[in-house]
């Protein structure tokens, strides 16, 4: 059996031949599925411009269902949905969203400022003689510890021989 081609947009697989694949990629079902996938990632400004140019779909507004679905050339957005889009666009344009994100995360600009303002003084005035790693009390009585378990000191780091590690 030959290789199978799987289409993520249509969630189906078929025999991987050039003609079959070409036929599928240019089919109406595939182009519709692909377009609806990428519509999820549209910018609010783009959506708002598109919706302003469309007239409301009478069937969708009265019945709540449209036979054409996402392929309908009329707008399926209600006035409240358009208002929300306008608010999103206004917030994006006025840069209110950069003051403090809604989800509680700190602002990236504040983090960058704090990083560059609080530079650590690297002039060497700090005393770094304190032990970086202490040997656990149960291992003190063992004289021949492997290098990975021996305490790290500045003397050992300067006089290390990596060939002994094996």
Structural class, from secondary structure content?
Answer: mainly alpha
Question: Helix segment count?
Answer: 7
Q: Which overall shape is indicated by the principal axes computed on the Cα atoms?
A: elongated
Low-confidence stretches: none
The number of strands is 2
Instruction: Indicate the percent of residues in helices.
Output: 25-40%
Give the biggest sheet: 2 strands, antiparallel
Report strand order across the widest sheet: 1-2
Order of helices and strands: EEHHHHHHH
Summarize the structure.
Helix content is 40%, strand content 5%.
Describe this structure in words.
The structure is a single chain. With 166 residues, the chain is mainly alpha-helical. The protein is built from seven helices and two strands; from the N terminus they run ββααααααα. Strands 1-2 form a two-stranded antiparallel sheet. Helix 3 (44-53) packs across helix 5. The longest helix has 16 residues, at 79-94. The chain is elongated, with a radius of gyration of 32 Å. The mean pLDDT is 79.
What is the secondary structure topology, with strand pairs?
Elements lengths: L3 E4 L4 E4 L2 H8 L2 H12 L4 H10 L4 H5 L16 H16 L13 H10 L36 H5 L8
Antiparallel strand pairs: 1-2
Helix pairs in contact: 3-5
């Amino acid at each position: 059996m030959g290789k199978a081609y799987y289409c993520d947009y249509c969630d189906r697989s078929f025999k991987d031949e050039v003609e079959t694949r070409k036929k599928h990629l240019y089919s109406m079902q595939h182009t519709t599925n692909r377009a609806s996938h990428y519509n999820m990632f549209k910018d609010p400004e783009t959506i708002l411009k598109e919706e302003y140019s469309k007239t409301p779909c009478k069937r969708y507004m009265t019945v709540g269902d449209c036979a054409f679905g996402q392929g309908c050339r009329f707008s399926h957005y209600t006035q409240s949905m358009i208002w929300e889009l306008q608010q999103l666009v206004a917030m994006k344009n006025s840069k209110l969203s950069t003051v403090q994100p809604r989800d509680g995360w700190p602002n990236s600009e504040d983090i960058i400022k704090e990083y560059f303002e609080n530079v650590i003084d690297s002039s060497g005035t700090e005393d770094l003689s304190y032990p970086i790693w202490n040997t656990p009390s149960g291992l003190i009585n063992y004289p021949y510890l492997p290098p990975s378990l021996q305490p790290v000191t500045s003397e050992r780091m300067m006089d290390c021989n990596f060939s002994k590690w094996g």
